[in-house]
Amino acid sequence: MKPAPWIAVLAAFLIAGLGQSAFASYCGAGSYSCCPTPACSPSGDFCSARSCCTSYKMVQDVVYDKCTVTKYRTVYDTVCEQTPVQCTRNVCETHFRDEAYETCKPVYQTCYRDVCHTVCKPVQKTAWRCEQYTVQVPYTQTCYRDECYTVCKPVYQTCYRDECYTVCKPVYQTCYRDECYTTYKQCNETHYKDVCYTVCRPVVECQQVDCCGGEWKTVVQQGPASCCNRCVQTPGRWEWDCNRCTQVYRPGCTRNEQVSCPGPISCKQVWVPRNEKKTVMTTRMVQEVKTCRVPYQVCKTVPITQTRRVPYTTCHVVKECRTKKVPYTVCTTQQEVRHRRIPYNVCQTRCEVRTRQVPYTVCSYEPQQVSVKVPYTTCTMIKECHTRKVPYTVTKQVCETKYVNNTRCVPRQVPYCETVCVPRCVTRCVPVQTCCPTPTCGPAPMPGCTSCGN
Q1: DSSP letter string over 306-318?
Q2: What is the pLDDT of residues 22-36, one digit of tens each?
Q3: Which alpha helices (DSSP H) does 298-415 contain, by range?
Q4: Least confident piece of the model among 78-87, 222-231, 352-361, 385-394
């Protein structure tokens, strides 16, 4: 270890403070005790001893020792205690009291009385009588319920159309001569003629048409930012409340600070036009001339010539156009709501009175006077007194002790171990290399031996 500069300065002050005698006694040093034994040995060289002078100083170092410390923390236990409480309870008791009441007891007594009546000697004879009795006869009754249903009713309507027709009316004339006469025979021939008619045929054409179109786009704009005040609350802490034996939350303090708020955002619809080409379908009608063959009937009269002497009849045909009404029927369907009665059977029973012949015996009696004792019962009410137990309820208060559970917090100390670092000072000797001062009374230093100042 290199000697610190302040040690040399301190040594210089000590040397200056000592007297000349000290320097003379110890050859310029404060004491020989600061030099090691080999350096102060008379057998050594003074220059070598002077250059190897070593001193020691006490240095204190702080050392941290780990030790386990037992600490205590307070733990609250919840203790439930039963506390006696005096209370009053109503108790209902049932008692009985004697109550007198009267009852009437019937006393029956049998008595007899003489009854004179006429007794007839029975003479039996069988006869028949008509007896009516009632019989439950089941019968079925037909009932009706109304039901609506829809029918499609055809409605026929007779219409008439005018139709023209040609009638060939023959005119006959009878003559008697020898001559040739001609008869006519009618025959129908079918001919065809070409009839032209015009039809319209649709032709679809596609055309490109320029049109102005576009679309709506949403543009979002944000306004300038602004500053606003905001209330900020610092975090709170939980504290133990000894009065209520519970943790209580203590909120932190509040402060106002300025916050930069973003500007408002607005949205608006913007129309973006653009030119578009659309395909338009157009339809036009083109007339076409078509030909069809239409058949028609031709009535032709063929003459026949004969010669004979017979009466002959000449006939010429006169055509006559007539009009007749030709009926035709048009059928239409018309919905009609109808009602119908739907029968259903209801089974019921009815009382029917019937008659039957019941045989019975007819007795004819011969009168005879007979005296008979007829018993009869008399009832007499006798009053009796009875006693009965009538219950009644008596309420009385009974004192009793109830136990109420009370909860309280009991603190207790719980030990726990914690490792801490304990500082302590350690003193140790540190060697310091020092140079001895130059002697004032000795011989001159030898070559190679330098002083502390050099």
Answers
A1: EEEEEEEEEEEEE
A2: 344 444 444 444 444
A3: none
A4: 222-231
Cα distance between residue 112 and residue 378, in whole Å: 10
Minimal CA–CA distance to 29: which of 50, 9, 48, 43? 50
Tens of pLDDT along 145-177?
Answer: 888 888 888 888 888 888 888 888 888 888 787
Q: How far apart are CA 227 and CA 260, in angstroms?
A: 4
Q: What is the pLDDT of residue 10?
A: 56
Lookup: tokens for 176: 């008697």
Mean pLDDT calculated for residue range 403-417: 85
What Å distances lie between residue 392 and 91, 96, 220, 385, CA to CA?
Answer: 14, 6, 91, 22
- Per-residue model confidence (pLDDT) at position 441: 45
Contact (CB, 8 A) for 100 and 441:
no
What would the mean pLDDT of 304-316 be, rounded to a whole number? 79
The Cα 439–Cα 446 span in angstroms is 12
Structural Rg of the chain based on CA atoms: 78
- Are 257 and 228 in contact by the 8 Å Cβ rule? The answer is no
34 neighbors 15 (Cβ within 8 angstroms): no
- With 0-12 / 13-18 / 19 or more C-beta atoms within 10 angstroms meaning exposed / middle / buried, residue 436 is buried
- 413: nearest Cα among 163, 107, 76, 50: 76
Say which residue the tokens 């905001």 belong to.
230
Give the 3-state secondary structure of residue 376.
strand
- Name which of 318, 401, 357 is nearest 130 in CA terms: 357
Question: In this structure, which amino acid lies at residue 22?
Answer: A
Quote the CA–CA distance of 256 and 227 in Å, as a whole number: 12
